[in-house]
Design brief:
Layout lengths: L1 E2 L3 E8 L2 E10 L4 H10 L7 E12 L1 H16 L3 E5 L3 H15 L10 H39 L6 H11 L4 H23 L8 H39 L2 H7 L4 H39 L4 H11 L2 H27 L5 H32 L3
Parallel strand pairs: 3-4, 4-5
Antiparallel strand pairs: 1-2, 2-3
Helix pairs in contact: 1-2, 2-3, 4-9, 5-9, 6-7, 6-9, 7-9, 7-10, 7-11, 7-12, 9-11, 11-12
Amino acid sequence: MAVAEQGALDIKRGTGQWLVVATGVWDISTVPMLDDTVRKIAPETGSKVRIDMSGIDKMDSAGAWVLFRLRQRLQDHGFDAEIEGIRPEHAGLFGHIIAGHDSPAIEKPKFRPILHMLDHLGRATFEVASEARDMLNFFGAICVAVGHVLVHPRRIKIVPVVSQMQQVGLNALPIIGLLSFLIGIVLAFQGADQLRRFGAEIYTVNLLGVSFLREIGILMTAIIIAGRSGSAFTAQIGTMKVNQEIDAMSALGLSPIQLLVLPRIMALSLALPLLGFYSDILGLVGGAIMSMFVLDISVTRFVEQLNGAVDMWTFWIGIIKAPFFAFVIAMIGCFNGLRVEGSAESVGIMTTKAVVQAIFLVIVLDAGFSILFSYLKI
């Protein structure tokens, strides 16, 4: 028999049956001493074990857990172990322990791919709608700021506009010129390779002129600017947001839209048509050089054929799109910059999102212009 200060455990061995009698106080103060004895109980194989709790005067959850664990351990080893003689005042506590142990395990939800797809689609749709609403609000704020500037022209600063024109326009000339020149070469080479089968190599000039002046020149320029300058707008304004410079402007009563957004929109709206014209020229130069080497078309013949293939509307159709592309690129870049949450990671996320959104909307806008010009038969 093992005796504790206020509790006891009496083990009576019989033939094929063991009787474990718990008496006294079984609480947090006595259980540590009684637990060693409880752990050492190891009946003979095939024995039946009865745990008598009628002699327990006082019991808390620690004592009830020790006795319940004894019964559970014996049952797990194949013994017929039962608890008997529980007093009414102890039955509720012991019942809670049994219920907590015997409660079924939480079943892992079954993966349903269709429901998962619908859930993902619904969340994405809600996010797109919410972002479109915020962008529409931002567009409205820009319109209000433009109205204030038209009423008070002195509020717009020329120096930031010129500085932004240098960054988005002048500094972009090398990359735009190089890519336009190479794409002109590739387009002339591929066009000549296909038209040679029909003996119509001369129409390579028509293909190059119409496609570059109407679509490729300005569209490629807008995509490059979206990746180069649109992302720069987001990173610049986002960094200012992280450094709380935007909050400081608002606290001083200054409008971030008038100081940061409008100069960038104006600069890009002025620079992109010029960049589109520059891209058209370099693309045609590249096509002319390739035509001279591959098709043996002189520069003079190339210019004559180009003059007969295109008219001024072909050129203006591409240039007319430029301010609209510029506005969309600048607006999205500034919009995402102002949505930065306050960490460097957020700056990177919003910069990536700005590039993707700008390129997507530029292509959608270009498709809309194509439908409009087709409807107007231009």
